[in-house]
Amino acid sequence: MNQGAFICNNSGSGIGGTQVPQGTLSSNASARQNIQSINVPKLDPKCIKLIEENLSLLASFMTAYENFAMGKLVEPSSLDEDFDQIGQEEMDELDFQLNMALLVGRAKKFLQQT
Question: Which of 2, 33, 34, 67 is an S-S bond match for 72, by CB 3.0 to 4.6 Å?
């Protein structure tokens, strides 16, 4: 497994950068001589936000899996009944709104690139 999978670029100012001693729980003097230190990378706020988003996504996947394993998820056949209650005109309106939102998003992205 890649240990640097969630570590962002360390350039620029950030949080951290301190030396963290390991093995300090032992009261033995010989063990204290073998203390190793690791370098904690500096993380900028954007990286921390990205890590938090990834962890919240992982938590939601874990919750969904636990619900699936315990049989608490809704059966797909019951969803068909819900879709049958939506009229065709309402579906067309929702489709139109979605397409307009996608079009506006593409236009904004195009304007930002030019």
Answer: 67
